Amino acid sequence: MPDAEGHPNVEEFDFQTVLKALSDPLRYHVIATLVRQPEDTERTCTSFGLPVGKSTRTHHFRILREAGLVRQVDRGNSRCARLRREDIERRFPGLLRLVAENAPLPVDGALPGEAGLPAA
Q: Which residue among 2, 59, 65, 105 is least crowded, i.e. fewest CB within 10 A of its CB?
């Protein structure tokens, strides 16, 4: 049963839910960005520069959180996200390596689907 903030336990991670979460290019970008950063990296949701409004950004991070890909914590008036690297690796060994190997690198700050990068 997910905790009060909607984070599922590792045993509750569902492969189809994870794949669905990663199917969106913006969410894939978030995970690919976090997987390339040091293990304990925690970033505000706005720091990813997603080209969407606040409510859509909130929706994307809810999908990632409920899939078990990120853990979100409140930091003052913002929320931060941290990749659940150890949990993901335990449940789906090799998944994050595949994401890292298959994620397009940003070109001039472009996000997937924007000029300069193909949509994932």
A: 105
SS3 category, 83:
strand
Residues 6+ apart with CB under 8 A from 112: 25, 26, 28, 29, 104, 118, 119, 120
Write down how long the chain is: 120
Closest CA to 51 of 115, 118, 96: 115
pLDDT by position in tens, the chain (length 120):
766 677 888 999 999 999 999 999 999 999 999 999 999 899 999 999 999 999 999 999 999 999 999 999 888 888 899 999 999 999 999 999 999 998 765 544 555 555 444 444
Kind and range of the H or E element at 92?
none
Please give the DSSP secondary-structure letter assigned to residue 45.
G
Say which DSSP state 35 is in: H
